[in-house]
TrEMBL record:
This is HTH cro/C1-type domain-containing protein. It holds the Pfam family HTH_3. SUPFAM superfamilies: lambda repressor-like DNA-binding domains. The lineage of its organism: unclassified sequences, metagenomes, ecological metagenomes. Residues 12-66 form the HTH cro/C1-type domain. One of its GO terms (molecular function) is DNA binding.
């Protein structure tokens, strides 16, 4: 059985809205401030791979559906 969203490219903001989640919900899931989350969602800062993984579970979408440009290739832990 194929995943319903497989192959669909979606922004983090669109996924959040479709999942009926607030920016506060997303920020809390990532353990960051709402301000930091807003900067990421608006493209002023990049999401890390581990953050995209958390958000994909929260929003119930495949993490490969997010734009590659929104994601830093390393995790926060690897960057120190």
């Amino acid at each position: 059985m194929s995943e319903p969203n497989k192959g669909l490219i979606i922004t983090v903001k669109a996924a959040r809205i479709n999942a009926d989640k607030s920016q506060e919900d997303a920020a809390n899931s990532l353990g960051i401030s709402i301000t930091a989350y807003k900067r990421k969602e608006n493209g002023l800062s990049r999401f890390y791979v581990d953050e995209i993984a958390v958000l994909s579970r929260l929003f119930k979408v495949n993490m490969t559906n997010f734009f590659e440009a929104q994601c830093h290739k390393k995790t926060r832990k690897e960057l120190g």
